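pipeline/complex-builder :: batch 7 item 3
reading input block
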Amino acid sequence: MAREKVGALIMLLFSMSYGMLATKITLTFLSQQETFTARTMPYALSVLGILLSLAILVLPTADPGGEKSLGEETKGMDWPTAILLVVLMLVFGLTMKWLGFIVASILFLLVGFWILGERRKKLMLFAAIPLVIVLWCLMSLLLGVYIAPGEIFYQMGIL
Amino acid sequence: MWEGMISGMMTGISTTFIPINIGMVLFGCFAGSLIGMLPGLGPITAVALMIPVTYSLEPTTGMVLLAGVYYGAIFGGSTSSILINAPGEAATVATALDGYPLARQGYPGKALAIAAYSSFSGGTIAVVLMMFFAPMLASIATSFQSADYFALMILGLTAVSAFAGRGGVLKALLMVVLGLMLATVGTDQTSGVQRFTFGSLELLDGIEFLLLAMATFALTEALMLVLKRDASSDSFNPKMIGFKSLKVTAKEFKLITPSVLRSSLLGFFVGVLPGAGATLGSFMSYGMERNLAPPEEQKKFGKGSLRGLAAPETGNNAASTGSFVPLLTLGIPGSGTTAVMLGALIAYGIEPGPRMFIERPDVFWGVIMSMYLGNVFLLILNLPLIPYFARLLAIPRNLMVPIILFFSLMGVYLVTFNDFDIMMMVFFCLAAMGLRLMNFPMAPLLLGFILGGLMEDNLRRSLMIYDESMSFMWERPITATINLITIFILTLPLIRLMLSRLKAKK
């Protein structure tokens, strides 16, 4: 199956779900009497989404780039590294409040470099630490943005 | 009209020529060139990455900075196209057609210098044209009502899709619709009703446009570099260019001057069209020059022709300047990058459109006048600094990708300080990667998302004015004219298809 058809199929399902969810938008008593309510635009968009997805599914693929199958397109791609980076970003988001901006950011960069195959420790430290410290100084000292320290420092009694 | 223009220019000069704004133009050009030069990163990413910086600035200063980043990034993209044949985005693909062969023949410095001169000329000529056309269009647009705006937004969104290329129209339209759908998430501004929030407090204010821009462009571009194992910069040797090789002879200047003039005009007018942008500007300029060139010169196209390099470089810069015209005068972004800038304007609380021309002349004229300065800075800055800038291309991917990811995540986190936003960014990044792998374009999505709220407001207002009837779409002359243009643009791909079939039959 051509990759753009797969995309159209997903978009068709998405548009249908979006339309179904639109029916659940609660309307105030007054707005129920109006022609244009909070549901109107979502309904119209859902219908448009369904029509366009169907058109892509039914009509022949004109774009030469879209004819390839998803398997052909993704063949040979470096999925393990990309997945590790995605996981790293999620972990970064989850630990940010706990570890604080400086520690979480330095760790994020160091682990990111390591995932991508960098093994020169000095270079990794030299790239990560000054970058984070400079950004922190810029935000805190120059722009006056308060960046809260990590909760771990309070729990350990350091702060 | 002339009096208004002169007083506007004076406002622009007095706004631009203050130390902070001059500094921001310089910083914008510098940062834009650096980011745009990184393979895979284009002007949308560069502008999106800079938006958090603008939040602490005055609106004019912020917009001046973003404009500098925009044309800096276009120029930066040309550098990576010429040196390593890795265009940062579609607008600099045509530059690589002749720029890279010229660099391979041993003239990388000459190619970069011609690109710099052409960019400067294209940008400067386009700013002059913009000074005449933007106020004219803005004064006409002051008579526009909600109905006309609604029609204009449909025109803008349709035009983006119509220029998507063969077989791409439906996909671009679908992405516009997806962007509009995402714009409905959050509290409905008029009724106060929650839509698609799933009970989450974080979604009450809707999806932050910066978050979506960063996730769909900066994060996705960086992860695509990893997925595709793009190591184009790893083999680059920055010692290959030096000061001496940047020289362009008088004969060569004479050869490219007519191309530069023609491409400036064509690029500007293509850029003014909503949705066309720098990509079409560069390709059309390249095509025009190839058709106009004498047979001997025509043979050199694609093999290192100076005219083939100067034309798209001039065209993309002129078009990127031209794309500011619909943004500043109508509030309709002409490209993905100007869509991000529109988002920045809205975040400042400025309603883009013809009212901005009257209510915020400092922003309107400040941006225009800063472009003169920006073009001069780009030339002065880039010519001597090219050999040093190019060293950036030698930064290994191992270090570059995590740094891009870090700045993208921080760009959003340091504005909202909300962990949920990082999770949402990752989610949208994964969705965008999936869509890109399935050959769906991302710029129309962003455009739809940014115009979504405005479009719904204008439609609601028009329906209220016209007693809940859609008759304004054909009864009001301005709206009807805009709608006719939209229909024409929508049928363009069909007309092109029919014409090509007719040609094939003959």
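note: Chain A has seven helices and no strands.
queue -> next item
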